Amino acid sequence: MKRGAVPNVLGGPLPIRPHSxxxxxxxxxxxxxACGDVEGKFDVLFNRVRxxxxxxxxxxxxxxxxxxxxxxxxxxxxxxxxxxxxxPIQTYVLGANDQEAVKYFPDVDGCELTENITYLGRKGxxxxxxxxxxxxxxxxxxxxxxxxPYSFTSKDVCSLKAxxxxxxxxxxxxxxxxxxxPKGVGNFGNASGDVDTKKSGSSLISHLALDxxxxxxxxxxxxxxxxxxxxxxxxxxxxxxxxxxxxxxLANVGNPEKRKYLYAFSILxxxxxxxxxxxxxxxxxxxxxxxKSGKEALSGRQGLALxxxxxxxxxxxLSKKQGKKRQSTGGDKGVSPKQPRKPPQPLGPCWxxxxxxxxxxxxxxxxxxxxxxxxxxxxxxxxxVLILPIGHYQSVVDLSKEVVEEVEKYKCAVRQLxxxxxxxxxxxxxxxxxxxxxxxxxxxxxxxxxxxxxxxAFIVQAQEQQIELLEIPxxxxxxxxxxxxxxxxxxxxxxxxxxxxxIKKNFPLHFGREVLASxxxxxxxxxxxxxxxxxxxxxxxxxxxLFRKHFEPFDFxxxx
Length: 560
Ligand SMILES: [Zn+2]
Description:
Blueprint: E1 31-35, H1 42-56, E2 61-64, H2 74-81, E3 91-93, E4 111-114, E5 117-119, E6 123-127, E7 133-137, E8 140-141, E9 151-152, H3 154-165, E10 175-178, H4 203-212, E11 216-219, E12 226-227, E13 231-232, E14 244-249, E15 262-266, H5 275-278, H6 293-298, H7 324-327, E16 364-367, E17 371-375, E18 385-389, H8 401-420, E19 423-431, E20 439-445, H9 451-464, E21 470-472, H10 478-481, E22 488-492, E23 498-502, H11 511-517, H12 537-551
Helix pairs in contact: 3-4, 9-11
This protein binds zinc ion.
């Protein structure tokens, strides 16, 4: 059959995604179907499969996750079991998820249930005729040992991981089949509808998916359809690029809401693929949902990335005329056409996304292509500014190359401005309880103190609060030191030296300000909390006007 001719099953975008575009590949791509909970509606399912096959040719196999049997399946099943009816395609199913269904699976380690329908077993890996490697885990998670016959435990997960990872050069599997969703799969991803992925699902499956790196992961049991944005399996800038994972949850067969329960897809086995092709990152790729939450879910803690931001510090307004030139290139939507990667969208209101209605726009002083500059609300001094990405990025670690480059351009421009005013520039960033990157830039008059004084003030005050600051040499990169998603604080001195702290817990939110406001530096300790520094709207507008005027000669965004 023709590639791409797979029908659009139950609406939505065409699900087929041939991952290899290389014309030299002469092997026809194997076609698979995946299905959610069948719940004993065998006729509905197989009639649908027949219709699809009639239209689009044969598929290699049908993979069923979730409950294959239902409470009313007995009579219908009898017809398949006795050969009166027959599945039109080689069908593989997972095992029982409750005591009632156990009776349908005569051999817990896998067996043919009837012609063309095979129970895979409790856990394992099999390689289909097409060469696709398919890992599977039956049942629901159990914390008790011994587990009931319809459950898996951490031992099962460990042994499954060990089986696969013992093979040399293990890169991942093509497909992972589980019945429950992995816990936390919605982290960093698109909305998962009614399902709260922080609360429901199995954390053992999250661990399994993290280690097995499936290209496709199918699950069910939640009676809904959810296709998560693909997520990456490597840590950016720390590990070599790997393929992405697509998590797809399918609804139950014949559900009245017409939610999608069948998914057609077509991939070349991982082992046959060209590496460059395999590791290509789609434009909508997200962070790995399990890298942090998977571990912390087990200890009952939530990922830091999900914590609420405390009262937001700064507000912006865009109603004024600044940034007029760049807005025509898409700046007003916060997404520039030059930006190859769409920034992640905030989960709620954000005070820093330039396109956000929450933004108080009168404080914005310059708008570039990827970043903008704004006066700090309640700033330590009149020219305390922030460098912010236009799109919603949490920290410098998440930024793409173009955005990083423009952050550097802004840093450079601001440094030059302050130098011309006889001030040195101190920058700091706190990636902790903060959802949108804010790089704080505070000018310190040269006569006030030396760079060494500033450095010492940070080190001494950090020691007093048991904060471990690491010195990072000039020219080294925060992106290489911090891990995506892991909270940190750093300060950058005007010499380019940086002091870095990996936040483990309870970091004082105003630490950077406190040090700069202390007697050792600016000597305005009353101003260490921005909320103590209210300014009227008129004052803020006047300060922003003044800053724009002074910054203009240095503002690359205003050239053209
Ligand atoms: Zn934002």
